[in-house]
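Consider the tokenized backbone below.
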């Protein structure tokens, strides 16, 4: 028999959902069968798949280890070197300033140890705030995403309760995200409201009526005939939303290979060594937060644009 003591990060979820994460290679029907046939119990008592489990509960598993091993996907954490620019930290979150060119999340196994999530996990292991042998299903994670070549702010979540709440708040737009960029042409202040649909094969989004509602608020800081420095509020959070919206209205971001102007991108590459979109996630504002994150209500965190960004701004927008 194997016994699992439920931790705070595994608490407050259905038994079957916990077991599906604990034994990820087992099908949902197999997990349901094991619970119904009393091979999985809670506190040595018969349980139902829908029963809620809480911190301190003990899951009793009456299945041979050689069978369990077929269903497990044991997490291996290898020590890695990392460099995190943390601009704020408390017991629940860490706000991280990501450099352009670094992945936020691993896209494949080859990316292990080369992305912000892995850096964050190693950082918490070193601080003894995350102990993998104790945690059964939870791993510290990011509440938001940035493209590899977009710089700026990410929110790292240290516990499941915080991750769940911030994911909900991002969906409900209770956190505000602001970006800065330089785009082609003399843009006007406006709100872009164009539905976007993603082509998974091309990893590109297109303006389509059948797409998801997408809204971007544009505020020009300064500009000339050729270029504009723009502050952007992301009202919704679709893939490539800012890049696609600006391209759609004829003001693509400089350096953007996927959505931008090839001739101008070539000029930016030759003059500044710019090989990707010049887009920076500059500010995150926590609005009306509730529960254990209420102390963050109305707090703002902001970071300056990278050195290359300022260099290009000073040359193009004197």
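A designed sequence for it:
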């Amino acid at each position: 028999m194997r016994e699992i003591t439920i931790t705070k990060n595994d608490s407050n979820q259905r038994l079957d959902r916990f077991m599906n994460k604990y034994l990820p290679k087992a099908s949902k029907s197999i997990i349901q069968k094991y619970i119904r046939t009393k091979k999985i119990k809670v506190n040595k008592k018969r349980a139902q798949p829908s029963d809620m489990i809480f911190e301190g509960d003990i899951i009793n598993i009456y299945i041979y280890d050689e069978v369990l091993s077929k269903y497990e996907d044991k997490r291996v954490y290898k020590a890695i070197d990392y460099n995190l620019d943390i601009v704020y930290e408390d017991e629940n979150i860490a706000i991280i300033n990501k450099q352009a060119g670094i992945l936020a999340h691993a896209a494949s196994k080859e990316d292990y140890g080369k992305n912000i999530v892995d850096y964050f996990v190693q950082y918490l292991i070193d601080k003894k705030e995350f102990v993998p042998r104790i945690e059964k299903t939870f791993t510290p994670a990011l509440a938001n995403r940035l493209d590899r070549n977009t710089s700026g702010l990410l929110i790292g979540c240290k516990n499941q309760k915080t991750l769940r709440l911030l994911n909900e708040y991002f969906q409900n737009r209770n956190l505000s995200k602001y970006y800065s960029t330089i785009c082609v042409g003399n843009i006007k202040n406006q709100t872009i409201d164009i539905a976007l649909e993603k082509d998974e094969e091309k990893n590109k989004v297109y303006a389509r009526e059948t797409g998801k509602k997408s809204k971007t608020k544009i505020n020009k800081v300064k500009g000339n005939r050729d270029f504009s420095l723009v502050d952007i509020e992301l009202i919704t959070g679709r893939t490539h939303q800012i890049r696609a919206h600006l391209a759609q209205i004829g003001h693509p971001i400089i350096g953007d290979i996927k959505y931008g102007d090839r001739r101008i991108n070539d000029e930016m590459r030759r003059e500044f060594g710019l090989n990707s979109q010049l887009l920076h996630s500059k500010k995150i504002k926590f609005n009306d937060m509730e529960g254990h994150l209420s102390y963050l209500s109305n707090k703002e965190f902001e970071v300056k644009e990278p050195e290359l960004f300022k260099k290009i701004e000073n040359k193009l927008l004197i």
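Helices lie at 15-22, 28-36, 65-71, 116-126, 160-171, 241-248, 262-272, 307-316.
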